[in-house]
Amino acid sequence: MKICKIWDADYPWDVRVEKVCESLIEAGHEVHLVCRNQRRQQRLERQGQLNIHRLPALPRVLDSVHKLANSPFPVNPVWIQTIGSVIRQNSIDLILVRDILLAFPGVILGKIFGIPVVLDMAENYPAMLQDRLKYTPTSLLGRLARNPIQARIVEWLCLRMVDHIIVVVEESQERLVRAGLSPDRLSVVNNTPRRNQWGPRQTRGRDAEEEGLALIYLGNLDGSRGIDVTIRALRNLKDQDFLATLSVIGEGPNLDEFRAMARQLEVSDRVTFTGRLPFSRVQDFVDRSDVGLIPHYATDAWNTTIPNKLFDYMASELPVIVSDAKPMARIVREERCGMVFIDRDPYDLARCVKGLVDPVVRKQMGQCGQTAIRRRYNWDHDSRVLVKTLETLGMMHVS
After folding, report:
1. CATH for 2-192+378-398, among 3.40.50.2000, 3.40.1190.20, 3.30.2290.10, 1.10.730.10?
2. β-pairing, 2-7 with 271-275?
3. Which among 24, 29, 113, 292 could bridge 320 via Cys, Cβ 3.0 to 4.6 Å?
4. Cβ-contact 16, 22 below 8 angstroms
């Protein structure tokens, strides 16, 4: 089967796009990836067996036009023309589109060429935009261009026009069923790590009582990620003479706000903001950490998606502390791999941190998480669901 995979950003790189393409190629399928070309890379490239087709690159003197041409809005003619050309020239059998922004062009072209369209929906996009408007500094243009009301309309249309929808967690599937979609049109493919993605954690013999309990956060730094809650929890722990430190690895629009908050609450000596780091450096920080942290607000967005880092922490044998956002809380409680605190409650978060001071408890929870990764939450399992789903749709189309 020849599959056209549509990705709304530059490639490389995205971990889920890479895993999906590799799994389909390993299953014997031919994959053509259509992606943005904001960085003006060569238009046609072959990486191993993956065929990459990028959008046209305009001269730098036309940079604003180039950015507009690359924008993944639903009726962008540049995207429609490029995807259509790839489908026609390569006799594509199935379209797999990542996220809602480009689902509409995928649906249009699927109807024109008579091929099935599958939406790989990573998140509740309208709810994510709502969080961004509420908690993250956003320009007037950004507020107009990424409007949650418009996004809900586009989502409603696309969900009913695509042939099948892949979601990343059961709570997302439940949301769509409540919205009237048939469960037969939905499959869950978690964004789990490859078995060999994270090597065994090389612990450094730290003394948590002397050096403090080392917390780590990996990911973007926008307003709904709960870093503000964590900083307040560190202040509360400092008031109790309990030493805990936090390494924040990532970038985002709220970074300056979080740094200012740490200074204001006089915990700058306990918080390290590293910015974005290469994977080897991230692994080093993970090795020196005691607890993986995901303090995301329990909003509609985070109640219907799952952060990759939960599985990354579990694979690294780190015990975790998560907010009570539904998917995270469910998995952590089921697998007994960490503790859950009340959303946006720094005092309850501080309680959880103190609850993991015992290294024996941390070891037991870390082992439970790693066992869950080996048993269920790994890409070997989820890739089989992905491949079977697409092959079934392809066979139905042929028949």
Report:
1. 3.40.50.2000
2. unpaired
3. 292
4. no
